[in-house]
Amino acid sequence: MSQLQTLHSDTRSGTTHPVPASPAAQDVGLLMLRLVLGVTIAAHGTQKLFGWFDGGGLDGTAQFFAASGYPAARTMAFVAGFIETTGGLAIAVGFLTPLAAAAVAGDMINAVGVKWNGGFFAPTGVEYELLIVVAALAVAVAGPGRIAVDRALPVLRAHRLAYGASAALVALVTSGVFLLLRS
Q1: Mean of the per-residue pLDDT values for the chain?
Q2: DSSP secondary structure letters along 106-159
Q3: Closest C-alpha among 78, 141, 70 to residue 105
Q4: What residues contact residue 151 under an 8 Å CB cut-off, 6+ apart?
Q5: Above 80 in pLDDT, residue 15?
Q6: What region, left, alpha or beta, does residue 20 occupy, with left being phi > 0 and alpha being psi -120 to 50 degrees?
Q7: pLDDT at residue 40 above 50?
Q8: Cβ distance 27 to 142 under 8 Å?
């Protein structure tokens, strides 16, 4: 039975048979997830880069990175803001989706590492960051769906699980390296 099928029970005959899931519904669901995830994380990135939406800008973000033990705090602030802004926008439109999702997931894994001792629930816990990590990894693994810029790119037209799994592995390794840089 295909992964896109569910079993439907026929109450009259007592038999079950596969019913294909709607690819259009899956594409719209992935688009909704990508739009909310992408725009949210892009806005978060503009807080770091430009101070928009009551953000700290590069200076305030650099102070946070320095207080969190990262070397080259201003550079780290720029990198985090750039990853969040560009990665979020790329996820929203479905452009280089596995790579964009991996970048966002790796960035937010670092945030989880920094806030880990604050418990689970906001404002000091990791629930927001963890949700972003899992949503980004889900998009990386599932692909952007058919309503995405990637559909126009020959290499990414047909999403493969290997692309998403490789991207997730890159996110985990890269974020681990950055967490090790903290003092």
Answers
A1: 88
A2: HHHHHHHHHHGGG-SSTTTSSHHHHHHHHHHHHHHHH---SSSGGGGSTTTSS-
A3: 141
A4: 94, 144, 157
A5: no
A6: beta
A7: yes
A8: no
Return the closest-CA partner of residue 89 out of 149, 30, 169.
Answer: 149
Mean pLDDT of 14-23: 70
Name the residue type at position 20: P
What the block records as the tokens of 86 is: 């560009």
Q: What are phi and psi of 5, to 5 degrees?
A: -120, 150
pLDDT value of position 95: 95
Classify 74 as helix, strand or coil: helix
Reduce the DSSP state of residue 101 to 3 states and report it: helix
Query: Which string of b and e fits 131-145 if b means at least 16 CB within 10 Å?
Result: ebbebbbbbbbbbbb
Element (H, E) at 168: helix 161-181
DSSP letter at 177?
Answer: H
Tokens linked to 53: 């939406």
Q: How far apart are CA 8 and CA 91, in angstroms?
A: 34
Residue with tokens 């949503």: 135
Tokens representing 5 are 């099928």
The verdict on pTM exceeding 0.90 is no
Contacts of 98 by beta carbon, 8 Å cutoff, 6+ apart: 140, 143, 156, 159, 163, 164, 166, 167
